[in-house]
Amino acid sequence: MAQIEGNPTYIPASEFKPKIERCLSLLSKKAGQYSTWFNSYNLKIRAAAKSGANFADDAIDIGRATFDSSDTWLASVIIHESIHFWQYRSGKYKAGTPAELEANRYQLGVLQLVDAPASEIAHMQGQTGGHADLNGDGVYDEKDYAKRDY
């Protein structure tokens, strides 16, 4: 089971842990193959200022805006960020649109398996992989991360 860490500055453990546990349970029950795969990476999930894959700490960081989404969306985000760990650990991670498009494909599959609302599925189907390039310069870097509000 993943280590789950709340943070009083961002999302207290008393709020964070139960929702993350629900999302992991949802993955286990409805998207078992993704749950098994996620568990094999031995990642922690922690409350943070912004959401993303933190390779240095083997952690999926979850910001407030992402946390406040539905359980189905949050479960799919956990897998999306896990895909980045797979990319990174296999030497295939190149920050930007190609990495995001690949993670989005898996996230869409999770949304379908966990019976997410049609609006979430449609939203994911419309994603182009550019959501990380927030300043629109064609490069995903620290400038984009600084602008992130999710």
Shape: globular
Q: Rounded to an integer, what's the Rg over CA atoms? A: 14 Å
Distance between the termini: 25 Å
> Uncertain runs with pLDDT below 50, 5 residues or more?
none
Q: Give the strand line-up of the largest sheet.
A: 1-2-4-3
- Percent range for helical residues? 40-55%
Number of domains: 1
Explain what the structure shows:
A hairpin with a 4-residue loop joins strand 3 and strand 4 (59-62). The longest helix is centred in the middle third of the chain and has 19 residues, at 71-89. A four-stranded mixed beta sheet has the order 1-2-4-3. It is an alpha/beta fold and 150 residues long. 54% of the residues lie in helices and 9% in strands. The chain has one domain (3-147). The radius of gyration is 14 Å and the shape is globular.
Q: What's this, in brief?
A:
It contains 7 helices and 4 strands. By secondary structure, it is of the alpha/beta class.
Tell me the layout of helices and strands.
Blueprint: E1 3-5, H1 13-30, H2 32-40, E2 44-47, E3 52-54, E4 59-62, H3 64-67, H4 71-89, H5 97-113, H6 118-125, H7 142-147
Helix pairs in contact: 1-2, 1-4, 4-5, 5-6
